[in-house]
Amino acid sequence: MAQNTHQEHIVNSDSIYINNKDDRKSNHIQVITNGLLGDNDIQLKNCNVDIVSGGHIKAPEIRTTIIKDASGNDAITLSGGNTLDFNVVNVDFNNANLINMAAISASQVSSANGYASLDAELDALTTNKLSITGHTPSKIFVSTSGGGITTGTINPADITSGLSKLSGIEASATADQT
Questions:
Q1: Alpha helices for the chain (secondary structure H)
Q2: How much is the pTM?
Q3: What is the C-alpha to C-alpha distance for residues 142 and 148, in angstroms, rounded to an integer?
């Protein structure tokens, strides 16, 4: 039968200083418990941990549901089902490349111009470009700021005629443009 060796030690102090600065770099201060998460854990209750200079937290696994910013605002919520809810407006990838991400089709991207999707907007622009109704032959096309194309009032022959009157421009240089 195993002996009960449980002993409680209470340290009441304003600060506890643990230092191994004179030891080899491979010597570390270790606090070890046995068992799985939930068995013999180290619990810090009502305690803030503030790494004040050059520190890092390194762990093979971190379990949490909310990551907060330095002001205490929810920044990222891990809501199960492999879902990240970003609670801030901007996510800055700092020029990093996204890899192993599922493809996003144009039909999945919303349009800011009143169309059901980017795909529908592109279809409308392509249709408008390719089937211009009311086009008058031998006139110049004019585009609108929305990508629409209409028939202009200028005849290419008028441009050729005007350019030929300028010194240094030969009529043959513009004749094939009509």
A1: 118-130, 156-164, 171-175
A2: 0.38
A3: 8
